[in-house]
């Protein structure tokens, strides 16, 4: 299609509690968060670059039925995957899939407050440890 740009514009994360999820994703990414900036039905996490991250509570969609996403639909990159896993565990984040590796690449899965699966990926070579 001529009118579509060959790029992903945004990822939507569906939630039951917009404030709680917005706070969690902001904490996870280390970006500023102020509850007074959260206005239903969506909150855009202030990411630095790339694809937008939008949290959506579907307040205006009476037909919406929330179901947690069990397989990650996106991932976050870590510059130190081992440290990220340790930090997640120390913070009490539910790790649903422990570290796996393939070559110099590693990943693990965590659960957001709604039970959605989130993947964390990163290079496990010595340069990134």
TrEMBL record:
Pfam families in the cross-refs: Glyoxalase (PF00903)
Name of the protein this chain belongs to: VOC family protein
Residues covered by the VOC domain: 6-123
Species annotation: Halobacillus yeomjeoni
Source domain of life: Bacteria
Region forming the signal peptide: none
């Amino acid at each position: 299609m001529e009118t579509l740009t060959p790029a992903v514009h945004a990822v939507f994360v569906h939630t039951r509690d917009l404030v709680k999820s917005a706070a969690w994703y902001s904490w996870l990414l280390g970006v500023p968060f102020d509850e007074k900036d959260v206005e239903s039905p969506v909150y855009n996490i202030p990411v630095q670059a790339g694809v937008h991250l939008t949290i959506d509570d579907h307040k205006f969609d009476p037909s919406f039925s929330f179901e947690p996403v069990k397989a990650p639909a996106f991932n976050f990159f870590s510059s130190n995957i081992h440290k990220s896993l340790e930090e997640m565990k120390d913070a009490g984040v539910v790790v649903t899939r422990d570290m796996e590796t393939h070559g110099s690449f590693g990943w693990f899965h965590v659960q957001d407050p709604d039970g959605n699966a989130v993947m964390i990926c990163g290079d496990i070579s010595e340069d990134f440890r």
